[in-house]
Records
---
Amino acid sequence: MSYGIKRFFLLTCCLACSWSGLEAKIDLQVVRQWKKLEFNFPNDATRKTAIEKRFYVPGKCVPIDMDFHDRQDAQKSRIFVTIPRFGEGCPVTLGTVDDQGHITGYPDYSWHDNQGKNCKGLTSVYRVAIDKCNRLWVMDAGKIGSKQHCPPQLLAFDLSSDRLVYRHVVNASNYVSTSLLITPVVDVIGTSDNCKDTFVYVADALGFGILVVDVANDRSWRVTHRFMYPYPSHGSFKINDDSFDLMSGVFGMALSPYQRGRDRYLYFHALSSTTENIVSTKVLRNDSFLQNPNAEPRSIKVLPGERPNQSAAEAMDRNGILYYGIMDPPSIWCWNSATEFSPRNFHQIAVNRETLQFASGVKVVNNRKGEQELWVITSRFQKFLKGTIDSKAVNYRIHAAKIPNLFACSSCPNSPKSPHIPTKPVIPNTEFLDETLECDDLLEV
């Protein structure tokens, strides 16, 4: 793009932003896409056996989450994807994606070739998280479909060696028969030199609670609250022309930015809801929940406003900006946590009825240059639920964009001129906000 055209585009963008209520929308870049998932097997014989045993049924697998590992050395960066086993047919449940879009089981195929018969392997993984200590955290629900084959387990792999460095098998007292532990959020309390001082908060979507794992002491407890339940009035979903019912509790979760010497906040919401909730991690780390999972109900708050409709995953960047998708229209939004959680402070940053259906995974990734990127995985999950997936159409996509580019013409990162911040709950202040990116800054890129 020539300098003149680039300048004209940016000037147009800035002028658009100056109009009240008008913000530019940017399409996220599609990094990978599939009509149906394809897998790499150790050899042809393994593939043949998987097909014969119906461990692999083409078209039966839906990716739900992803994360991006941008390695600092000469090694190639990696995209991780999770493929929960909603039933038969998925040969691996966690893998890396090659340049052709084929998925290889992580850390290797032997961890997956069990289909619930080897609880030392991986049974069904919904979501993962990479922390600042270069660890990949994996939440294995232990279920295939509705059958609990193995106890849920939380694992961590050292991404430098791809070796298992931590495993926590969840005690039976910390989950119920309906539990579906899906979303791990990692809170490294200390520095990168003290990675043992870590807590992991895990959403239990169908057991309606949050599992807290104290990594240093290898123990866990369960937290329950009415805000973790689905709202019956929001159990009906619509994505484009498809409608379906789903009663799912706490689902999306995100941590406020790390500040030395301060406790963080956990933001969370039920899938079948339009509200957002907040709790101090200091409350969750209180082991009084060992005796009573509802020990401090007044410490968990609901924010005042509501989204226009339901949202699945969410993530927060180092400036306290929360990113999330909504169902109708399929789109990605942001909210500055220094402002009131209210529709007047929600900003649409991307919308596409074809490519942004059901944003089930949202991540903020630090690349090797120290820049932050937004990564999103979307799918026609509603068509999978209804059995109407079209194998000739693109059904699954991974998107990415640099966050400063998303905000070239958005009000989201701006510090509020007249902030309306409720005293209860306490919302993180604006001390950690970066300077606002001006449109002129992009002219130098």
---
Amino acid sequence: MTTRYSKQLPGFVFLSDLLLLNLALYNAHFFVFGAFIPQSNSLTFILLVNIAWVMVSALSRSFYVFRPLQLRDNINKFLLTLIYHLLCVFAIIYFFKIFDISRSEVMLSYSLFFVFVVIQRSALFFFLDYIRKKGYNHRQIIIIGDKNISDRLVKSFSQHPEYGYDLSDFISDDEIAAISEDELIRGLVEKAPNEIFVCYKQMNPELLNRLVKMGDAYLIKIKVVSDLILGNNYAHLVNYDNVPVLHLNSHPEIGLKIQILKRGFDVLFSSVVMLAGAPVFVMLCVVTKLTSKGPAFFRQERIGKNEKPFYIYKFRSMRVNAELAGPQLSKDNDPRITKWGMMMRRTRLDELPQFWNVLKGDMSVVGPRPERQYYIEQIVEKMPSYKKLLRVKPGLTSIGQVHYGYAENVDQMCDRMRYDLLYLQNISLNSDLNIILKTVKVMVQGKGK
């Protein structure tokens, strides 16, 4: 396939995003006001949103699709752009004092836009994956350098046809040594590949610089492949002036973008839940107070990010002074739990006050379950890897809570911890949304305890 339709892909995605944005805006207006034709205030809002999106999207380049295809990374980038866009729109609204805009219309517009784009990106990635497996939309590549490294790379490409790479030539170290640099460069230019993979153990820096300059001049991507095998480790590149260094970790570090995205989502989601659920909060507070003696709320010290202690808040589900004999984990048919408390725990309603912890920044909506120091010391003795979970904010809900539930002893806490360690390796807004949906399912089915 000689035509490079992928060159038109960013423009197509950009226009498609803009179309979906307006589809979301006009549908939101229809649902809120019962008419597709917007009035003056709504029209101002729609125009403002469109202008802001064009600028923010162009700066973030969220419409670019890179190889290899990573749907999660692409949606994360889109969500970060969406948050920047929302902040930009709110700033303009506040600066120009445009306050006559329906909050319901704003929230519904952004919710629909997010859903539309997730569907669009999923369909696009499925389509690209399909046609590349069929042999279309491929890029011609040349691999030069060490044969062992090259064989590993070729094997990876053969196992993932969705990458869309066709090997047009391989030039070994021996072949490179037998010809001059000018001949090598001339031969590569004549073959006109889309990308060149440089596999090296020891690379001549002058040759590498010439290859990079050639790539810039002829629009050929130059990618360097080392002989390093990461296994289950993770790496990111750090540049110390002109010295590139790979920083290795046993777990992926959470980038600044993901941290900003996650915190923005936490604040937005918690604010919506606390405002929309205010009547439910009041009802739960009153019923808790009337059904048993003691305060409506319960607080307890837990350990958060970087081992910093904080107080967690809940609706009280146990009788007062339930731990006079010392720290105890809850269990089935626990006599300390009130009848009303049992119902709250099964539906997880007792944990709603923790949204205040999320707003304060002590917790995140999704993250490892926060534990007490008393139990952390016992867990660490059995599984020292628990310390990894203390590098992130604990969560109101977690993948461990969804798939395992509450633990009745330290051994069960260790078993549940394995789920949270898996989450630590795949932190993204997509996985957070998935865990939230599963948590809602547990609440509706009353399967908590």
---
Amino acid sequence: MGGTGRLHVSAELAGVLERIDALGGMLDERADAAEALGRLPEDTARALLDTGIVRAELPLSLGGYEFAPRQLIETAERASYHDASAGWTMFALQMMTGTTAAYLAGDAAAALFPDVPNGKYALLSGHGTRPGRAVPVEGGYRVSGQWQFASGMAHATHIHSAIQVEGTDELRVLAMPKSQVTLDGNWDVLGLRATHSIDYHCADVYVPHEYTYVATTDTPVNGGAVYRLGLVNMSAIGHTGWALGVGRRLLDELRRVAAARTGSRGAAVDTSQFHAEYATAEARLRAARAWANDVWQDVEQTLDQGELPSTEQDTLIRLVLNHTTSTVSEVGRTVHRWAGSAAIRRGPVDRFLRDLGTGTQHITSSPVVLQNCGKWLSGARPEARWSFLDLT
């Protein structure tokens, strides 16, 4: 059984980050083409996968790197800095593939992850918050349902989906071949266009029981302490890193715009108001990053001691993600206000602003989550506990 012992901190982080950075120029050059395509080109996706970015969240016992939470945040941050859609695609594949490998039983995990060090493993994409229907039958379930926002589906081999078992209402998560669902191909949006976050559905598909696991589990079958976080907290890792990477890139782009325009007639970037607002945005972003580091350092210490996160830690994981996302949204408004035409013409500022506008709509950063955090922290619901994104 996995999940026991101290938290693993990988020595592979620096190498993965270096390989991601080496792709930065290519990601910039191909960003417009990826948007037009609606997904990352196959060679771009393969180059990113070859950095080890998905292997970073695969269990050490299966040949993965099994990064600690803050290492995973930094990985998502770095990829998202170079391209927000690429970063989103990769952290989605990373999270769903890594948790599937951790929580599936031995035979199923062995079949899907036969040789991780040599790149022979399944890639999973899908949706886990609105469950499909699972009718129990001998050996498994007959599954039907419709799911949304399957980021990275173009590159996946298998589906990750939430299901609710008929008769017991138990929530489980399945893994099944992508060929068993119908892809709806309906991702037509302003931002994160290259993530291929399409909807999909299936009707009466048989899924063996061993290819499912309890959705609320915090007990991994494979891998160590990081997987005791459970699905929602593991998802928060990638979203936090994504927001930080996007915020950093936007401020760096604004600095480049300012450098090109300073000294020209009537340049707004030469005003004291611009300098004050840039400094304020910089302070907000750095403070958000520091608090995220603080929250996750505390959680890592708990995991390293063989314990589960407390309700307060679960609350702060959700709150720091919400705060980071809203902070970066404010940074984006500052960039939009001062970047002038660079914010509306095709280019990195325009693209990152559109991607940010879409990414901030994710359910993990919704106003309801913020309200639930306030209920617990204020003492209004002291006996409540988190069930996914709900306080119950």
